[in-house]
């Protein structure tokens, strides 16, 4: 299996995962929040589940659009930036005294997967030294 196919498979897996999480926050918010690692909002704060769901869906649609449009280098950079979300989630779970297993086994592991996917995409689309010189604008 080529690096490009592995990168594509990892990207599609990540997209499917975050789309599933986003939809789950919209249709089963209490079930979804139970696996996050910290208690959800109480009282009228449940609208935040909808916000999280919509943002997670967006986090899946952006890389999907880049993948479908063939913008693999931009996809690599987007995946690199996207890794901040699960990394931040791990820190949030830990800072709110949530389970270490959830912080590391869910959120940090997801961040690592996204970072590895980004590395595969960026490595695959790395311009050669000759190509970089040929396309670089002349400074006058």
Key features of this structure:
single chain, 140 residues, mainly alpha, 7 helices, elongated
Secondary structure elements and pairings:
Blueprint: H1 3-27, H2 29-34, H3 47-68, H4 72-82, H5 84-95, H6 100-124, H7 129-135
Structure description:
Helix content is 77%, strand content 0%. Helix 1 runs antiparallel to helix 3 (47-68), helix 4 (72-82) packs antiparallel against helix 6 and helix 5 packs antiparallel against helix 6. With 140 residues, the chain is an all-alpha fold. It has one domain (3-123). It has seven helices and no strands. The chain crosses the membrane at residues 6-27, 100-122.
* Helix run count: 7
Helix content: over 70%
- Our Rg estimate from Cα atoms comes to 18 Å
Termini separation comes to 45 Å
Number of DSSP-assigned strands: 0
Mean pLDDT: 90
The major sheet is characterized as:
none
Short description:
This protein has about 140 residues and is mainly α. It is about 75% helix and about 0% strand. The termini are far apart.
